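Below is how a single chain appears once it has passed through the pipeline. First comes the sequence as given, then the structure the pipeline wrote out for it. We keep one example in the README because the format questions we get most often are answered faster by looking than by reading.
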Amino acid sequence: MRTTTAAPLTATDAETLVLAARRAADAADVPVSITVLDAGGNLLAFRRDERAVLVSGETSTAKAYTALQLNAPTTDLVDLVKPDGPFHSLATALNKPLLFIAGGVPIHRDGQLIGALGLGGGAPEQDHTFARTALQAL
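Resulting structure:
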């Protein structure tokens, strides 16, 4: 049986994502932080608009990490961790920086998970929209 391996996320890919996300956020006049992680959760790129709130750097990274670990957009996970949700304790059960707020998206190539992108600083749905827009640049 032959398996194919998707090309990994590169520094050039990460720069493309940061630029596309920044353009989307700038067009909406929303200062954000942008984090790109590779498939192993390693930081490939980070940018914080100087006007963005300081915590946005941490939230963008936690959103990217959450999207990577669960291979799902964070916007799809919000209801799962509410008090009546099936994974309500997941946010506090692990010693990991999981954040269940919209703005994190997994990155796939040839059907395989190769990394994640996270945005923080705008309203959650804005961050999600900017991230989805940036993915289209790859």
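The chain has a mean pLDDT of 94.

See the next section for the split statistics.
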